[in-house]
Each structure stands twice: as structure tokens, then as C-alpha cells.
Amino acid sequence: MATAVRMPSANQPKSMTRPTRWNEEVEEAYRFQIAGYRDEIEYREVQKTDHVDRWPHNGYVKKLVRRDGCFYYYNRTRECPDKQINKTKLYEY
């Protein structure tokens, strides 16, 4: 029985940090991670798209497609609660 060996992608992060305060970068990461993705780079790889739906007035993510094909819809305002800030991961490439 053959097993599939997954080759590492060229877009693997070099490091990961956890934030202590909310900012727009944390909000962005939180929205992608709720939908099951590491960040926007992984979302674009998996979904094979260059388009991410965003709110026009602030640029926050508006809608994401989960890995199972369902959709996540986000509000115009902040979604990341204070207790989830330190659970969010920020990746550096």
C-alpha cells in the first residue's frame, strides 16, 4: 500500500509568534484561522485563487471558503475577542 508523501511548499513560514494586543494584522490572521487556514498565503494555495472578498471601507476579510466548501461570513467590525488574541498565530516568511 502506497502512502502519499506531502512535499513541503515553497511558502512555508520560518517562524510563528503569538500577539499580546489586538491590531489589524491579528484580526486578519484570526479570520483566516477560524476558517481553517494558516494565513492568506495558504488560503490562496488551497483555494487556487487570487481573490479574497474584503469589505471596501476597511479592507477586512468579508467571506472565506472553508476547506469543506462551506462559507464563513464576517462582519465589518472587529471579530477577534480579547480572549482569543493570544491564541491567534502570526507567521513570518
TrEMBL record:
Residues 1-20 are annotated as: Disordered. InterPro entries: Meiosis-expressed_gene_1 (IPR020186). Residues 9-20 have a biased composition (Polar residues). One of its GO terms (cellular component) is nucleus. Belongs to the MEIG1 family. This is Meiosis expressed gene 1 protein homolog.
